[in-house]
Specification:
With 380 residues, the protein is mainly α. The chain has helices at 3-34, 38-56, 63-82, 89-120, 125-153, 160-178, 194-227, 236-258, 264-284, 288-302, 305-316, 324-348, 351-354, 356-379. The protein is 81% helix and 0% strand.
C-alpha cells in the first residue's frame, strides 16, 4: 500500500474510534455531574449513533472531499461540546443536538474514509479495510483509560477540546496525503441479481444488529461495572471496557488466519454464539474478574463480524456508491439498541436486566446467518 496516505488515514480512523466510544466512557461522570438517569443518558447515546447513521448518507462521489467535510464538522462540534454543560433541561436538549451533530461528523468521516480506502487500495481491499478497522479499534481500546483518568482530574466534557485539536492535526495529514489523488465511486457495472439483493439485505441486517450489540455492550460497560459489579477499585471498569476493545482488535487480526481453516458462514455462526456466551457471563456474574474475562471473550467473538459484512456488501453491490446506505442502516443499530437498553434500565432499575436487549439481538443474528446459509445453498 502507499505508505503516507495509509498512515494518515489510519491515524485519523483511530481517532474516530476514540471519539465514537468516548461518550460511553464518560457516562458515569456525566450521570454524577448532570444528575441524569439512564433514560437521559441513553438518549445521548442514541443521538450520537443516529447522527452517525445520518452522516453515513452524506458522502458524495468525491471521497476525499467528503472525508474532509466530515472531519471539519466533528472538530467544530467537539469544540462546542467542550464549552457546554447540561445542568438544566434546555441545556440537556442542546447536548443531545450537539451529540447528534458530532455523530453526523463522525459518520460522514468514517464512511467516506472506508469508501476512500476501499477504492484507493482496490487491489488490497481486504487487508486495507482490516487494517483500517484495526486502527479504529486501537483508538477505541485506549479511550476507557484516558477518559477515566481525565474525569478524575477535570470536567468530563472538557476532554473534547484536546480531541478537537487531535482531529484537526489528523485532518491536515489526510488532506496533504490525499490531495491530487482523484478517487471517485466506481460505477455499478451490472445490477445485482435477486439472490444477491436478498443476501445484501441479510448482511445489512447483520451489520445493523452487530453495531447495536457492540454499541450497547461498550457504551454501558463502564456504567455497569461501576454500578452492578461491586468493586472498590476504579481500575476494573476501564479494564473491562478496554479488554472488550483489545479483544475486538485481536478477533479482527485473527480472522484471516481462521478463515483458512473454516468458511465465512461457519465463522459468522461461531462468533455470534461465543459472543452470546460472553455477554451471558457478563450479565450473570457479580465478579469483576469474571466480567473482564467475559468482556474479552465477547469482544474476541464480535471482532471478525463487521469487516466481513462490509466486505461482502461491497462485493455484492459492485462497489456502488449506494453502499453508504448500508453504513447508515447499520449505524441506526447503534442508536436504537443502546437507547432501548437505557430505557429498560431506567424503568426496571436494573442495567443487568436491560443488557438482555443485545442478547436478543445476538439470537436474531444467529437466525439471519442460518437464512444466509440456506440462500447461498439454493443459489449454488
Amino acid at each position: 500500500m502507499q505508505a503516507w496516505p495509509a498512515i494518515t488515514l489510519n491515524t485519523g480512523f483511530a481517532l474516530t474510534g476514540f471519539s465514537t466510544v468516548l461518550l460511553g466512557c464518560l457516562l458515569p461522570a456525566l450521570a454524577h455531574d448532570w444528575h441524569a438517569n439512564d433514560g437521559r443518558l441513553g438518549r445521548l447515546l442514541a443521538a450520537q449513533f443516529a447522527g452517525a447513521s445520518i452522516g453515513a448518507l452524506l458522502p458524495g462521489v468525491h471521497f476525499q472531499r467528503s472525508a474532509v467535510q466530515g472531519y471539519l464538522l466533528a472538530i467544530g462540534v467537539a469544540a462546542a461540546l467542550a464549552l457546554s454543560s447540561a445542568s438544566a433541561s434546555t441545556q440537556f436538549l442542546l447536548q443531545c443536538v450537539l451529540f447528534l451533530c458530532f455523530g453526523i461528523g463522525l459518520g460522514w468521516a468514517m464512511t467516506s474514509t472506508s469508501l476512500l480506502v476501499g477504492t484507493l487500495f482496490r487491489n488490497q481491499r481486504g487487508s486495507a479495510l482490516s487494517l483500517l478497522n484495526a486502527s479504529w479499534t486501537i483508538g477505541a481500546a485506549a479511550c476507557p483509560f484516558v477518559a477515566t483518568q481525565w474525569t478524575r482530574l477535570y470536567r468530563p466534557t472538557l476532554i473534547f477540546l484536546p480531541l478537537a485539536l487531535c482531529l484537526a492535526a489528523a485532518l491536515v495529514g489526510i488532506f496533504a496525503s490525499t490531495r491530487g489523488r482523484r478517487v471517485e465511486a466506481a460505477p455499478l457495472l451490472r445490477p445485482p441479481v435477486v439472490s444477491s439483493v436478498s443476501l445484501l439485505v441479510l448482511f445489512a441486517g447483520l451489520a445493523f444488529f452487530y453495531v447495536g450489540v457492540e454499541s450497547s455492550v461498550s457504551g454501558w460497560m463502564i456504567t455497569f461495572v461501576h454500578r452492578d459489579a461491586l468493586s472498590a477499585s476504579h481500575l476494573w471498569a476501564p479494564l473491562a471496557a478496554s479488554s472488550f476493545w483489545v479483544a475486538l482488535l485481536c478477533g479482527r487480526l485473527l480472522a484471516p488466519l481462521v478463515l483458512t481453516a473454516i468458511s465465512e458462514d461457519r465463522l459468522f455462526a461461531a462468533c455470534i454464539f461465543f459472543a452470546f456466551v460472553g455477554l451471558m457471563l457478563i450479565v450473570a456474574s457479580h465478579s469483576v474478574i469474571v466480567i473482564v474475562i467475559a468482556a474479552y471473550l465477547c469482544g474476541l467473538a464480535l471482532g471478525p463480524i463487521f469487516p466481513l459484512c462490509i466486505s461482502r456488501c461491497l462485493a455484492l453491490s459492485g462497489e456502488s456508491p449506494h453502499t453508504r446506505y448500508i453504513f447508515a442502516f447499520s449505524g441506526f443499530g447503534g442508536a436504537v439498541l443502546p437507547w432501548v437498553t437505557g430505557l429498560i434500565s431506567n424503568s426496571e432499575h436494573s442495567l443487568r436486566l436491560a443488557l438482555g436487549v443485545p442478547l436478543v439481538a445476538l439470537c436474531l443474528m444467529l437466525v439471519m446467518t442460518s437464512a444466509i446459509s440456506r440462500l447461498q445453498l439454493h443459489t449454488h
